[in-house]
Design brief:
single chain, 327 residues, alpha/beta, globular
């Protein structure tokens, strides 16, 4: 589907295409939480004008459309909601970025927040200030988990939920798109589509995108005070979900590295490296066990290593297929 052919399902009455800052919100079957996400954007303490692009990725049910329409109608948010009929994580994110770049030609900074996240009231200001002060092409910030069950608080240290960095400053790379700012010039520097569709149902299109940014010589900055909170449902704290997440991380790591292996020799080295991760992961798990970490954290390195090996033989999770997505 081309950019211009996407249906505009909702739009502000006073649509302003001159916004220089655009927040993108891909959405799939989380209409109730999308209300909270958009409400947190409406509460931003930010004096400059910004727009919001919502992408509805459930073309059949379209539960996000009335939520976006109401948010734009009541204000103070302005923007639009488009429908991306082709389902999948990368499809939805690409639709958001492409719509923002096309509909807001003056936009210099594009941000993203997921539809199960809530932005702190100073999030937008701090992200933009970090970009302008640092001059970085990409800015990332923490996504802090909010668990419905207080007994799960120990999972905050699990790699699935723990932010990559704890201090503001230049960093070598960021890994997730759930709290990020990307300059328009970054998109111009990389080939389309922005998020590689090979990661559409696996996830990890963001990791691949930021890896390509790093290889292109672009710079990264971490804004530790630009906080977003993520609502973590009970299903995402189960051993099965955590195991699947670890396998998925391993598969993503393998495919990102595989893309850079262009010769027979480099592919052979990647094979050896992938196999070597299994015994190395046992050592890492042992070190974690000695620090009295919970079992899910101890097991994580081994599960990730197994995920890479399984991906190498064509076995991997596909969590972003419609039939497998849990809210």
């Amino acid at each position: 589907m081309t950019k211009s052919s996407r249906e505009v399902a909702a739009i502000s009455e006073r649509f302003d295409a001159s916004a220089e800052i655009v927040v993108c919100v891909p959405s799939f079957r989380r209409a109730e939480h999308l209300q909270l996400t958009l409400a947190s954007l409406a509460r931003q303490r930010f004096a400059r004008r910004f727009a919001v692009v919502v992408v509805e990725n459930d073309a059949a049910n379209r539960a996000a459309v009335p939520v976006a329409a109401q948010a734009f109608r009541r204000g103070p948010l302005q923007g639009l909601c488009v429908v991306e009929e082709a389902q999948g994580n990368c499809r939805a994110i690409n639709a958001a970025f492409e719509t923002a770049l096309e509909r807001f030609p003056a936009a210099t900074m594009l941000l993203m927040i997921d539809d199960d996240e809530i932005a702190s009231s100073d999030w937008l200001r701090r992200m933009v200030e970090a970009a302008e002060t640092s001059g970085a092409g990409v800015v990332g910030g923490p996504v802090l988990p909010h668990f419905s069950d207080d007994l799960k608080q120990g999972l905050r240290r699990h790699p699935a939920f723990c932010p990559a960095y704890d201090r503001s400053g230049p960093v070598p790379i960021i890994y997730g798109s759930g709290n990020c700012l990307i300059r328009r010039s970054v998109f111009a520097a990389l080939a389309e589509p922005q998020f590689d569709l090979r990661f559409n149902f696996l996830g990890g299109g963001d990791t691949d995108f930021f890896t390509r940014c790093r290889r292109a010589g672009l710079t990264f900055y971490w804004a530790a005070d630009a906080i977003i909170s993520e609502t973590v449902p009970e299903v995402r704290t189960t051993p099965r979900w955590l195991m699947t997440r670890g396998l998925r991380i391993g598969a993503i790591n393998y495919h990102v590295e595989c893309k850079a292996a262009h010769t027979a020799g480099s592919r052979l080295r990647l094979c050896g490296k992938t196999l070597a991760r299994l015994p190395l992961s046992l050592f890492r798990a042992g070190r974690l066990a000695m620090t009295d970490q919970p079992l899910p954290i101890v097991m994580h390195p081994m599960i990730v290593a197994a995920g890479s090996v399984l991906a190498a033989i064509g076995i991997e999770p596909r969590p972003y297929e419609a039939s497998k997505i849990a809210s």
